[in-house]
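[audit] Reproducing an earlier prediction to check determinism. Same input, same settings, fresh worker. If the tokens differ from the archived copy the diff job will pick it up downstream; this log only records the rerun itself.
[audit] input (116 residues):
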Amino acid sequence: MTRDTSNDFAFADRIAEVMDGTRFEGYLHVTVPELVKSARADGATYVDMVFARRDPDEPEHWRYEDRADPGTESAQEELETARLDWYGEQFELRWLDNETTAKVRLDVFHEGDELA
């Protein structure tokens, strides 16, 4: 088994706004905590994506949905085009700058809460 860092995937740890036309739908967080490639022929690297969707019925007004894509190629193509096919729903992505990413990471995905 070989291991690579998440830096090997261009969209690792990035966050985008998810839009349906002009309507804001939420945020997409792309994570690849550790790329692990199996020595077996069927081994795959997974790209994890979490879609935080606005939902007034949820306690914090966000509903979290996730998806794990086997292999980086299809995820790379999808993310490069900034078009997201989320279980049959089509969305556009707008990648956030570093400052906005840090705020969304804390406020929406609660990463870094333990440091606050």
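[audit] rerun output stored. Observation attached for the diff report: The chain has a mean pLDDT of 84.
[audit] end
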